[in-house]
């Protein structure tokens, strides 16, 4: 390809992103018709509220900066999926599967569950959670409802609708910090080396992503696992004042394999796009990079690492990275969500142009 052709291609891509952004600002049309979210506590917005689990946070001070108060989000405010939804132009937050009504699922569903993992047993010592396999089963239930709502009884028409939707998936964190690195509850670390375990996880993850493809998903944003060894909770468990290298090194193995696998899936399914979203963030200088969470956290087995109910958190929340012992503040979610949104631009730009032409929706929300 000549330098002139490359320049033209670059200019075209910039034009698409610009037009997509302009579409939201001027016409109020979401850049994709619907957004489906799969993940763990970093994206859960209420699916765990009625489960028998220690991994739920529908009490203050959680939600202290969220318009509706404590909703089940593991944050003082919005989580990363909320930020992405707003940047995509949705007027309302994507609703959790547990409570979403029929008129809401047309815009998408959040299936994420605190404590959930790629493996079925991950997080089971904390109680009930909705594993990725079960989140995918819940998505099948949603599709059956959508057949009547958008497909007029046609599965083919419904799948065409799903082809246009955004899918983000963020799993793997609990397969390490609530499985592999908790030998008192799980045998995985004695059965598999870190290399073997990463390969096992990514192979299963690939099958799960391909199941979503079979059901109609075509636009995938797949998050790398976070560097959990740097959370206050894991540093406290290991009695360290710095990141736990053994955990982060294992997660690097997983992320490297995941990135390679997504490239393989792109080659296998040319009509789909699998985008890898890195876990590393660029923080502004005013953020307090510390192992201390903003809220006072519980040390009891019941709710270990969660904010103590009704305790007053720090007042300068915008300057903290960690809200509790494992989860980021809203400020960090805004940074991460914005970076993810930019990374996802190949998935929403072309769709936004199509929606601009159709101009049959009017929804907007700003971060």
Keywords:
4 strands, disordered C terminus, 367 residues, 12 helices, mainly alpha, four-stranded parallel beta sheet, Rossmann fold, disordered N terminus
Description:
The chain is mainly alpha-helical and 367 residues long. The protein has a single domain (26-358), classed as 3-Layer(aba) Sandwich (Rossmann fold), CATH 3.40.50. Helices cover 43% and strands 5% of the residues. The protein has a 4-stranded parallel beta sheet with strand order 1-2-3-4, with helices on both faces. The chain is globular and about 55 Å long. Mean pLDDT is 89; it is low at 1-20 and 359-367.
Question: In terms of quaternary structure, what is this?
Answer: single chain
Query: For this structure, what is the CATH homologous superfamily?
Result: SGNH hydrolase
At the fold tier of CATH, the topology name is Rossmann fold
N-to-C span: 38 Å
Low-confidence stretches: 1-20, 359-367
How many individual helices? Answer: 12
Order of helices and strands: HEHHHHEHHHEHHEHH
Please state how the strands of the largest beta sheet are arranged side by side.
Answer: 1-2-3-4
How much helicity do the residues have? 40-55%
| β-sheet strand percentage | 5-15%
């Amino acid at each position: 390809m000549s330098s002139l052709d490359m320049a033209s291609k670059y200019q075209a891509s910039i034009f698409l992103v610009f037009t997509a952004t302009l579409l939201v600002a001027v016409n109020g049309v979401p850049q994709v018709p619907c957004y489906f979210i799969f993940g763990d506590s970093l994206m859960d917005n209420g699916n765990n509220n009625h489960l028998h689990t220690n991994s739920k946070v529908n009490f203050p001070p959680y939600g202290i900066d969220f318009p509706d108060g404590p909703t089940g989000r593991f944050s003082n405010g919005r989580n990363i999926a909320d930020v992405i939804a707003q940047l995509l132009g949705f007027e309302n937050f994507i609703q959790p599967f547990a409570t979403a009504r029929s008129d809401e699922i047309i815009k998408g569903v959040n299936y994420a569950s605190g404590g959930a993992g790629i493996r079925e047993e991950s997080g089971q010592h904390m109680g009930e959670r909705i594993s990725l396999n079960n989140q995918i089963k819940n998505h099948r239930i949603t599709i059956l409802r959508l057949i009547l709502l958008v497909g007029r009884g046609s599965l083919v028409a419904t799948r065409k609708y799903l082809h246009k939707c955004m899918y983000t998936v963020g799993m793997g964190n609990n397969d390490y910090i609530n499985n592999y690195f908790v030998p008192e509850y799980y045998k995985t670390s004695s059965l598999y080396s870190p290399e073997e375990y990463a390969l096992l996880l990514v192979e299963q993850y690939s099958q799960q992503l391909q199941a979503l493809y079979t059901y109609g998903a075509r636009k995938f944003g797949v998050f790398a696992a976070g560097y959990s060894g740097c959370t206050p909770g894991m540093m406290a468990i290991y009695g360290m004042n710095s990141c736990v290298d053994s955990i982060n090194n294992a997660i690097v193995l997983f992320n490297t394999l995941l990135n390679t696998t997504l490239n393989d899936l792109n080659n296998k399914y040319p009509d789909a796009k699998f985008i890898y979203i890195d876990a590393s963030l660029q923080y502004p200088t005013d953020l307090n990079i510390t192992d201390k969470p903003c809220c006072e956290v519980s040390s009891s087995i019941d709710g270990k690492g969660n904010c103590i109910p009704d305790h007053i958190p720090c007042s300068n929340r915008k300057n903290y990275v960690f809200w509790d012992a494992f989860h980021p503040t809203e400020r960090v979610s805004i940074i991460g969500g914005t970076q993810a949104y930019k990374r996802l631009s190949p998935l929403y730009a072309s769709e936004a142009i199509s929606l601009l032409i159709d101009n049959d929706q009017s929804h907007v929300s700003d971060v």
